[in-house]
Amino acid sequence: MTIDGKTRVCGLMGDPVEHTLSPIIHNTIAEHMGHNLVYVPFHVKKGQVGDAVKGAYELNVLGMNATVPHKSDVIPFLKEIDPLAENIGAVNTLVRIDGGYKGYNTDMTGLGRAMEKEGVNIAGKDVILLGAGGAARAVAFLMADRKADTIFILNRTYEKAKEVADEVALKTGARIIPMPMSDYEKLPLKKFVCVQSTSVGLHPNDEDVILDDPAFYQQLEVGIDLIYKPAETKFLQLCRKNGANGFNGLKMLLYQGVVAYELWNDVSVGDELCKAVERKLIEAQ
Ligand code: ATR
Fold it and tell me: Which end of the chain is more exposed for a tag (fewer CB within 10 A), N or C?
C-alpha cells in the first residue's frame, strides 16, 4: 500500500504485542476494500494505557484494540462503553467518537458473529459452558445477551462456577445453573450448544481433554473450542466422532477483528473476504 497524507491509523495496545495476528486481519481487509488505512502494534506498558488512549485521540487514531494487560484497565479512560462490554468488564475495541473513544467487547460479539456464520442460533437454546474462568464468564454474558434458554456452567471448581453463574444471572436475568464438572451425567437429556472455555487441550498438551465420555458428546448439537492451537483439539475430535458440528477459536479471533474493522470504518466485510483473511490466519500460525 502507499502511505500518504490521508492514511488513517488503527492499532493494538498490548504488552507483549509482538506475536499478534491482528495486523494480518486489518491490513488484509483494508487492502482488499481499498481503504487508505494501516494497522500497527503499539507496545503499551501496564499502567500507561490512559496516556496511550489520550495520545491516540490527539494523534487522530481512528480505532484501537486493547489486549493483555489492558482490557479492564482501559475502561476508566473511555468516553462511552457498550453495555455488553460494561457487564463483562473488558474492552478489546475502542471506536473513535466525539471527544474520545467508545469501548466494545468484540471478542464476544465476534464469537456471536462466528456462531451466526456457522448457522448456530443461540436464542432459545440450552448451552453448556465448560470452565468458569475469565473466558467462560465473558461467554456466559454473550449467551445471556443472545437469549439462551438455560446456561449450564460446568467447572472443576464448583465455587467458581457458582460465582460466575450468580453474577451473570444477577446482571442479566438469565437462567444459569452451575455444576461441578464431575456431575455432567446429571445434565438434562437434551441437545446442547457447548463452548469449551478451559485451557485444557491447549498446545503443547494436545492430547488432553476436559471430558472424554462419548455419551457427553452425543448430547451436543455443536461444540465450540475457544482454543485454536492445535486447530483440531481432542474436544473437537470427540464432537465430530459423536455427531456434533464444531469449530475452533480461530473464528472468534477472525470475527473479533472483522467486527472491530466494521465499527471503525462503518462498512460491512463480506464473507469471501472473511474467508481470505481466515486462510491468511491459518497460514500465519
Ligand atoms: P481464562 O481467563 O483463559 O478463562 P482462567 O481464568 O485461568 O483462564 O480459567 C481457566 C479455566 O480452565 C478454569 O475454569 C479452570 O478450572 P478451575 O476453576 O477449576 O481451576 C479450567 N482448568 C484449567 N486446567 C484445568 C484442568 N486440568 N482440569 C479442569 N479444569 C481446568
Answer: C
For residue 256, how many C-alpha atoms fall within 13 Å in the half-sphere facing its CB? Answer: 24
- For a mutational test of ligand 1's pocket, the pick from 199, 208, 225, i.e. the residue with the most ligand atoms closer than 8 A to its C-beta, is 199
Instruction: Look up residue 252 and give its amino acid.
Output: M
Q: How far is CA 26 from the centre of its chain?
A: 16
Q: Which of 198, 211, 228, 252 to mutate to test the pocket of ligand 1 (most atoms within 8 A of CB)?
A: 198
Domains: count for the chain: 2
Q: In this structure, is the dihedral angle defined by the CA atoms of residues 235, 240, 245 and 249, taken in order, positive or negative?
A: positive
On average, the pLDDT of the chain sits at 98
Full domain range(s) for residue 51 = 8-104+251-284
Do residues 69 and 113 both lie within one domain?
Answer: no
Asked whether residue 20 carries a pLDDT value surpassing 90, the answer given is yes
The answer to whether 194 and 211 are in contact (CB under 8 A) is no
Is pLDDT of 86 > 90?
A: yes
Question: Shortest CA distance to 142 belongs to which of 155, 158, 125?
Answer: 125
The burial class, CB within 10 Å (0-12 / 13-18 / 19+), for 279 is exposed
Strand order in the sheet with 245-248: 175-180, 150-155, 127-130, 192-196, 220-225, 245-248
Instruction: For residue 200, report the distance from its CA to the centre of ligand 1, in Å.
Output: 7
| pTM of the predicted structure, to 2 decimals | 0.96
Domain annotation covers residue 3:
no
Q: What is the mean pLDDT of residues 170-177?
A: 98
pLDDT tens for 190-215 read: 999 999 999 999 999 999 999 999 99
With respect to residue 198, please indicate whether it lies within any of the assigned structural domains. yes
63 & 40 share domain: yes
Cβ atoms 187, 219 nearer than 8 A: yes
